[in-house]
Amino acid sequence: MLRARSGATYRFDPGALCLELLTTGGPGVYRHYEVLHQPADLVAWAERSRLEPTPELEVSDAEVSEARRLRDALFGVVLVHLRGEPYPGKELDVINAVAARPALAPAVGVDGERAWAGVSSGTQLLATVARDAVELLTGPFAHRIRACAADNCQLVYVDTSRPGRRRWCSMEHCGNLHKVRAIRARQSSASAADAADSTPGLGDREDGRQRQRRQRDGGREDQV
Ligand SMILES: [Zn+2]
């Protein structure tokens, strides 16, 4: 769950474990959103993440710093990926080094359910996240990594839907705001057209143009 400036909370599914880490803060201006300060914060992130089941973790302070370092490197690589530029070597080195460490070990629980072997370290958790990044960046959905289409939203997700037409971080949030704005724009152009109708000599022409604009907006909105 994320919190909007309005205070409303909304669900954001970035579609991949490694992208879920990007919601915890980031380099530069994203530092402002930092939530990984102490071991309990990384444990809480793992609970919120798509890891199933939640691994039992023992995390050190050094591993929290490492989590921030991995996240910032991943952030750098993803932003460059979105711009279609070559990957920065330094950031790739961080991701690859973390991915090379032992990851969370999967296990079969006594009840036959999926489990993780014993208590895992923060290092294992981060290795799993870094490997997920390697799979995402080199896999079939690499070209489906996108930033939300809203101007004031930088959330990054991978569109794994079959049609591949996802545009928003969340339909509940940016998708809805866009819809509301499109409806308002249509209403104000409709009332502008009404006002134009009462102006002698301008009415018909204005109205036709407004109608065209409405139809165009309507068509665009259907793609939401
Ligand atoms: Zn958004």
TrEMBL record:
Residues 188-198 have a biased composition (Low complexity). InterPro entries: ABATE, ABATE_dom_sf, Znf_CGNR. Residues 203-224 have a biased composition (Basic and acidic residues). Residues 144-187 form the Zinc finger CGNR domain. Residues 185-224 are annotated as: Disordered. PANTHER family: BLL6575 PROTEIN. This is CGNR zinc finger domain-containing protein. The lineage of its organism: Bacteria, Bacillati, Actinomycetota, Actinomycetes, Streptosporangiales.
